[in-house]
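Hey team,

Filing this mostly as a record. A colleague (T.K.) asked me to run one chain through the structure pipeline before their review meeting, and I want the input and output archived in the tracker in case anyone asks later how it was produced. No errors, nothing strange. Just documentation.

Input sequence:
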Amino acid sequence: MNIRFSWNSRVAHSYISDENFERTHFVSEDDLEEDRWASGAKEVILRLETMGGFDMAGDERIRECLDELLNAFNDHDLDRIMNMFSDNCTLEMPRGPEPWGARSEGKEAVRQGLAARFQGIPDVHYEGRGHYVDGNTGISKWTLTGTTTDGQKIEVRGCDFYEFNGDLVMFKDSYWKIVV
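Output structure:
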């Protein structure tokens, strides 16, 4: 098996960072143990095996999942949202007592965390500002608007980092700006 690592390849670029890396380098399986890029090459091979190769169709599939998630969030449809999450998913919300905010683990706990968002901001809306995909990671940028139950109007930019396993969300990490 020969694998071509191209500096312009997003996977190779993501996993091999060496200032001496030539524009194109060929490595065979036999070379992996001795090659100076062996650890990076092994990571790329694992990444390729996990993704089934350079899977541009997979990127498009995740982009479609991100679109569907945005639509489901705007419809406040928890059932549709949760159908896109795996059973062992994790959610990290921007506010909470820890450096990561508040963490919910497992499908039911994630559902409760998302339900609290809809309850706290009953008219919440996410205006999509773009999706980005790299491998099994998807990022959605948005502007959140709404009114809290105590009457406070909110307009804030934020983003969600998603990790997918196939078409299912394994991890969702939300960030938003602090408006003062």
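Quick notes for T.K.: Confidence is low (pLDDT under 50) at residues 1-38, 48-54. The first helix runs from residue 10 to 15.
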